[in-house]
Design brief:
The protein contains five helices and 13 strands. With 229 residues, the chain is of the alpha+beta class. The N and C termini lie far apart (44 Å).
Length: 229
Amino acid sequence: MDDGVFGQLEDGSPVVGNYEISKEDNEGLVDAIPKDYADQAAREHLGFKSVAERLSERFHMNPKLLKALNPNSSFRAGETVVVTAPDKPKTGNVTRIEAHRRTGQVVAYAEDGSILTIYPATIGSEDNPTLSGSHKVEGVARMPDYTYNPKINFQQGNNKEVMKLPSGPNNPVGTVWIDLSEPTYGIHGTPEPTLIDKAGSHGCIRLTNWDVEELAAMVKPRVIVNIVE
């Protein structure tokens, strides 16, 4: 591959690399994810729709970039594709979290007060503002299902009944739910990572699935989450 552009970005570690698609990458795919929650609730799993979507999430890429780097790929088992090289996962103990509404960022702090990491985030919207003040982490749920209750949260389409949506990366809250002490609020993933910090949430703090998975591995109950302007 021509390293003209990518060579300018290098800081000692590779920007892109090659990946051979395996048979496992083709397993557990679903044909489509319906928009209507009632239709989603009727599914067994809200999984990836394609190998390309799975790889985009695994390698922290915009799907359009993945396809631009591999314009002739059919993303079948045995093919080698070009992918980005994500940073190594952050490690440590998060002792405090700040969610900054105006900048659309979640900042995680270490025990010594230093910043462990910063994530781009969607934090509420004008119609559904995120709660203010300080709250505590109550726990972490991985691959959670999602209980839709229009009387508590919001109404989606014509759905007026409580229903449970199955787990999966295309679940409305993604692959992780970090529960907060304020009922129905949490820090969670998303089925649409390209919309982070571009489209409003229904009051919660939304990260990409890969960022919330990293954060969940470093946070424990009773960690304080401050919502600030």
